[in-house]
Amino acid sequence: MSEDLRQITIDTYNHSADKLADYFAGFGSRVTDIDRAFELAGNPVQPTVLEIGCGDGRDAKEIVRRTPHYLGMDLSEELIKIARRNVPEGQFEVADMADYEYPPDIDIAFAFASLLHLNKSEVRTVLSGLVQALRPNGIFYISSKYRPEYAEEVQDDQFGRRLFYYYNADLIQELAGPAYGLAGSWESVHGHTTWFEMALRKL
Length: 203
Hints:
Blueprint lengths: L2 H13 L1 H9 L5 H10 L7 E5 L7 H4 L5 E6 L2 H10 L4 E4 L11 E7 L7 H14 E12 L5 E7 L2 E7 L2 H8 L3 E11 L2 E10 L1
Parallel strand pairs: 1-2, 1-4, 2-3, 4-5
Antiparallel strand pairs: 5-9, 6-7, 8-9
């Protein structure tokens, strides 16, 4: 993404952190997706879980009920502050997923509505870096906005201006390369937006 739009997107999340947290509180945690990822990973006992783009800890609340080994990272300092208040038993850090040094021995990684802020080159970098950190047969569970063709869009709404990229499961799998296999993919509609969820397994 262009540096200006990247910084504008980060600023939007920082300036609107409280409003966004209130908005997403109405949706709750993604319990179905979290359970599905744990099942695909073989329901390991106390797995090591990484959440890329954890936001205000919306999903961390559910993940930490299933394991004490949770790390959430996000580029928004203000959202991380909220996450630390909301989920004090979780571990959180401010970091950029596009150049993050992923910790080793991850059983499950989540990217809920976060890769959609990265272009194809950056997504490929994340996938490449993460596969080195996943355990064999580890699961990378992704949700993102769907379109049949890759697209870039700047969105202005009540929270501010943000840059989004639209993907589909086939494109993500192509970017992932042969180090990953597809463990499953699904589509869902929320409001006027179609989303896809997919699980990649480290081979």
